[in-house]
Amino acid sequence: MNLNILVLPGDGIGVEVTGEAVRVLREVARAAGHSVRFTEGLLGGAAIKAEGTPFPAKTEKLALKADAVLLGAVGLPEFDNAPPEMRPERGLLRIRQAMGVFANLRPVRTYKSLLDSSPLKNSIVEGTDMIIVRELTGGIYYGTPRGISGEGANERAVNTMTYSRAEIERVARMAFTLAKGRRKKLTSVDKSNVLENSQLWRKVVIEVAKDFPDVALDHMLVDNCAMQLILDPKRFDVVLTENMFGDILSDEGAVLTGSIGMLPSASIGEKRASGAWTGLYEPVHGSAPDIAGQNKANPLGAIGSVAAMLEYTFGLTNEAAAVNQAIESVLAQGRLTADLKPVGTPATTEEVGAAVCAAIQL
User: Which domain does 69 fall in, by range?
Assistant: First the structure.
């Protein structure tokens, strides 16, 4: 295959982890006989510095032309007090909207070799294997009206959580489809005891469930789900929820794996005429500017995102499995960055990337 990839390194450690992810993708393509064309663009703080906007028009054009987009991370402390439209994170929201990627898939899986890296007891986290499906282009992050108005004692802020039936139905169908191919269990998370928005969410999910009679559906309030993720994570298979709840819960899920640096993600949109999913792929972690440029960052979340890209956008399941197996092999070898609390000297970002490349077998 000919793979056309837009690479957006972003900010902070995004540059380093994306470099290793690209390295692994080149190695997989070489081993399997595919050709890859990489184009690089700007997003986030790097784009603000160079172009005066977190999401340049050129980046949008490149994203819409690419088969898939690989993103590092966005965010820099120097923009923390900037107006909302001039913050790096706004670029991330805008590219998701421009690409129409409405479902964020965040796998949370524990590895035996990393059980001691989690702050939870081994008996609790061992065997955890779930996918959190987060609606990505609706909800409170995009709803209007929004903004800050007034002055002094009259200053106030407004954000609006809003969902349409169609938005809920399409992400629910994707989640049920994933569950059908896994352990056939779906947990829908909402706050329907308080929010009308969640009441519609639950109603639509129940209706969609009728088309998937072999998938067991249960409902859980978001506060209980946050607790159950820590008390009994093995109970979950596919977790479906709205934008803000999914943002919070999937980051909480990172503690189960031992480090947020381990988690990949795939943001998926509608299928193209070719049958491929539109996809934006990125690790869950942030830009971690405190360790940027020090060759310390864990690249496995970014490398795992490459595996997701190979599977969801290109349908290359063997290649995706090879990357995931190489990650597991490197973890078993103990080639770990500092965040995973290795015995002995931590491996560098580049050393982990090189080890994954060496472990790929096709």
Answer: 1-105+259-362
Query: Which of 67, 191, 237, 312 is flagged as catalytic?
Result: 191
Of the residues 241, 257, 273, which one is the last residue of a structural domain?
257
- For residue 272, pLDDT beyond 80: no
pLDDT in tens, 43-69: 999 999 999 999 999 999 999 999 999
Based on the residue annotation, tell me whether 214 is a catalytic residue of this protein: no
**Residue 251 falls in the annotated catalytic set:** yes
Q: What does the DSSP assignment read for 40-88?
A: E---THHHHHHHSSSS-HHHHHHHHHSSEEEEEE---GGGTTS-GGGSH
Quote the CA–CA distance of 252 and 213 in Å, as a whole number: 30
User: Is 184 designated active site?
Assistant: no
- Residue 335, classed as helix, strand or coil, is coil
- Number of separate domains in the chain: 2
**Domain end position, chosen among 202, 231, 257:** 257
Q: What pLDDT digit, counting tens, does each position of 217-271 carry?
A: 999 999 999 999 999 999 999 999 999 999 999 989 888 888 888 889 999 998 7
| C-alpha span between 227 and 194 (Å, rounded) | 18
Q: Is 191 a catalytic residue?
A: yes
